[in-house]
């Protein structure tokens, strides 16, 4: 495995967390999605839906956290799998139609990932919960914004098939050398 920082991206409820957990169970270094942490911290501070109430503050917190994840991953001696990356922040801001400061695009240009695996929308596994408030239709639209954003920053996206977690895991491991 000569790839160092590997991202799993996709809209809400596309199987990223399940796959990250499986990768971790197989002995790989994995960093979880940080948006749930940001959401729960905001709720503890009295903001029920920070992304909806103050998308810029939410996005700045995500950007900061994802940059920290990237910097920590660079220090690892083995490859690191990360649930979502820095360009996700820009994709979500574009999805809601908000503008953002230059530091968002500068971060996308500065911090580059080695490999991107895209998990497509999958209605059969879609669920919502206390931190996932998007509908399946919105999740599908987010997917298109993610694809456009990552391509804009020059990434090749490797679409992971809709199949069992074990087969998705095998697909990723088999395609790390591409």
From TrEMBL:
It comes from the Bacteria. Keywords: ATP-binding, Nucleotide-binding. Residues 6-168 form the NadR/Ttd14 AAA domain. One of its GO terms (molecular function) is ATP binding. The keyword ATP-binding applies. Gene3D superfamilies: P-loop containing nucleotide triphosphate hydrolases (3.40.50.300). This is ATP-binding protein. It comes from Flavobacterium difficile.
């Amino acid at each position: 495995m000569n790839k160092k920082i590997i991202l799993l991206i996709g809209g809400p409820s596309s199987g990223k967390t399940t796959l990250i957990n499986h990768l971790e169970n197989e002995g790989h270094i994995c960093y979880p999605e940080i948006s749930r942490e940001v959401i729960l911290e905001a709720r503890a501070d009295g903001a029920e839906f920070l992304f909806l109430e103050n998308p810029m503050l939410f996005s700045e917190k995500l950007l900061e956290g994802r940059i920290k994840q990237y910097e920590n991953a660079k220090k690892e001696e083995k490859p690191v799998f990360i649930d979502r990356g820095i360009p996700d922040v820009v994709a979500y801001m574009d999805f809601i139609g908000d503008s953002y400061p230059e530091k968002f695009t500068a971060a996308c240009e500065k911090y580059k990932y080695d490999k991107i695996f895209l998990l497509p929308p999958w209605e059969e596994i879609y669920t919502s919960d206390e931190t996932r408030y998007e509908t399946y239709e919105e999740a599908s639209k987010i997917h298109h914004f993610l694809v456009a954003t990552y391509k804009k920053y020059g990434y090749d996206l490797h679409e992971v098939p809709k199949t069992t977690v074990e087969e998705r895991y095998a697909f990723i491991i088999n395609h790390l050398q591409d």
